[in-house]
Amino acid sequence: MSLIFGKKENEVISLFKNHLDMVGQVIDETFKIIKLSCDEDCTDIVKIVRQKESEADSIRRNAETLMYSGAFLAQSRGDMLGLIEAVDKVANKAETVADVIYLQSLKIPDSLRDKYIKEYECSVESFKALATAVENLFEDVDKSKNAVLEVERWENTGDGIERSLIKEVFTLNIELARKIQLRELALQIGDIADRAEDASDRIEIIILKMSA
């Protein structure tokens, strides 16, 4: 099932897709930092993360302005505004992950790097599923429903990796302060998928209202 919209709605949908692309770039750039070895500097990548996050904010604001000017029916406008704000929070959280590493000069132990990468991959996949859910909300509602389930599946997988990772962090023979930093990093990475799931919950509500 696809929906037919007017000119303003189609402009907003285009901005939604541009916003999704920019949020995806924020997530991908932050992933580069997770993959860096201990002796590599992340300063330049962090600058790109912040720039991309700012661009995502700008696109979101443009979409919101257009919606406030009359795009979508009044009863659905609030849901659409809430959705793009929820998606934007995914980018905010990815930027937070970059800052946790950069501002604290946090070095991921080589023995744990693969687990941090696997946890972050779950967040990447959860966002990809979210992007599919958002895009198909306007084009194919059944595909959107299936993608929402994928968001939840990847979020649950990431939760399991996060718990295992934190447990392993506290077995390391390192100072407590660094253990706490590494635990915080694992939690923040997991929050990317959590934010994606929050956004997908909004999609579920929109679909329910559409089919009511």
Layout: helices, strands, pairs:
Elements: H1 7-35, H2 43-68, H3 74-103, H4 110-137, H5 141-169, H6 176-211
Helix pairs in contact: 1-2, 1-3, 1-4, 2-3, 3-6, 4-5, 4-6, 5-6
List key phrases describing it:
single chain; mainly alpha
SSE class: mainly alpha
Strand content: under 5%
Radius of gyration of CA atoms, rounded to a whole number: 18 Å
Biggest sheet features: none
Overall helicity: over 70%
Q: What is the overall number of helices? A: 6
User: Which parts are unreliable, with pLDDT below 50 for 5 consecutive residues or more?
Assistant: none
Overall mean pLDDT:
93
User: Helices and strands, in N-to-C order?
Assistant: HHHHHH
Q: Outline, from the CA principal axes? A: elongated
Euclidean distance between termini CA atoms: 15 Å
Number of strands: 0
Description:
39% of the residues are buried. The chain has 212 residues and is mainly α. The protein starts with 6 loop residues before the first helix and ends with a helix. The radius of gyration is 18 Å and the shape is elongated. The protein contains 6 helices and no strands.
Quick recap:
This protein has 212 residues and is mostly helical. The protein has helices at residues 7-35, 43-68, 74-103, 110-137, 141-169, 176-211.
